[in-house]
Fold each of these.
Amino acid sequence: SKDVSIERFKIGHISAEWISIPGANEEKVFFNLFGGGYVMGTLESRRWIPYHLSRATHLRCLNIEYRLAPEYPFPAALDDSIKSYKWLLSNGFDSKNIIICGESAGGGLTIATLLKLKVFKLPLPAAGVLMSPWADLTVSGKSLLGNQKFEPLMIEGLKSMAKSYAQKESLSNPLISPVFADLKGLPPLLIQAGGIEALVDDSISLAERAKTAGVDVKLEVFENMTHVFQNFGLELSESRKAFESVNEFIHKYI
């Protein structure tokens, strides 16, 4: 579409793209980690959410193609997200002007990235936005069974993706399943989920954990919506509301 500009480049071995609408803010950016169960996803197939984020907020969005399992298991994806964030910092972007975001597996990776940045004592982004995060790779949320009828996102598929990513590592490693992490010191978080998605418990648990750790967290569960319903863009009213909410949320912090 002609109202979007896509600029492809490399960060070391990582393929990356700037996605923006005309007139987007040059200084304030999203750093986006796409979803795909840690085993799939390409820049071409994952432009939709960054595009709508840019439309809704007038910020540019950096989308990266982190390495995927099973060929590159944990911690490859995390290493790539850290490397890309450091690239932003060394290319003139102030951490105060960066919003980290991710959907599904990318939502879990967003939290893992924040935890790792804290370990490295690197300046944290201003805020984080998570859409339907997959944050428990032990696949033990009760909603998995309860909401299975609404969603083809089946338990077996999740288990096999989790195994591909973790391989020899424990599935309850907090950098693999951030629902088990100490989230103290993380920036403000907006977590959005669909009310009938199989993974809604991941969002609820993550929000509770963040709150317990003193993080400024906002959880929004959209009734009757499925996993990453934001893919409907600005056409579906709930999805449009979700992007409006992201816009409102981030502008409190940047």
Note: The domain at 5-250 is CATH 3.40.50.1820 (Rossmann fold).
Amino acid sequence: MTNFKECINLSEDIVTTLDGKELILKGLHNYYGPLTMQLLPFGGIQGVNGGNLIIHVKNGYICPREIVYDGKKYTPKDFCSLPLELVNRVLPD
């Protein structure tokens, strides 16, 4: 499991869970676009703007290029369209 209290290495996958199912975020990159105004703890899903899954981490905001959820691969846009109510949720360490 990824420790969100530490700086995230963008060359490594984030491994966590969402609703009790494994969530792997791959191809991480920094995000510099618009954000919502609330400040979430590290590991918080800050937004889903433009089909990006935006996560607040110690070293800023990041997005994945590929997501594996419950063993299925998704693009960020497809994953964000699932009925999971992602915004403002905090991913566990």
Note: The mean pLDDT is 95.
Amino acid sequence: MDAPSGINADTGEGYNPCVRPDFTVTLGIPKKGLSRENSGKLFLADTGIPIYAVEENNVDAPDFKSRSLINISNQP
């Protein structure tokens, strides 16, 4: 959950050993270092961060609207 064990969520660097999951649920905002290659299919879970806080801090995160989980596997 959030980032696979042994994967640096900022850089994507894998340490030895590291987990290579089929899917990962990351929390709140996308992590720069997570990719399909090191994290499997990626999902983003809503943790209740207000949209104004995301916008004020210039964070690139989707508006969940009525969804609590978003598939972000195909986003850059």
Note: Residues 1-76 form one domain.
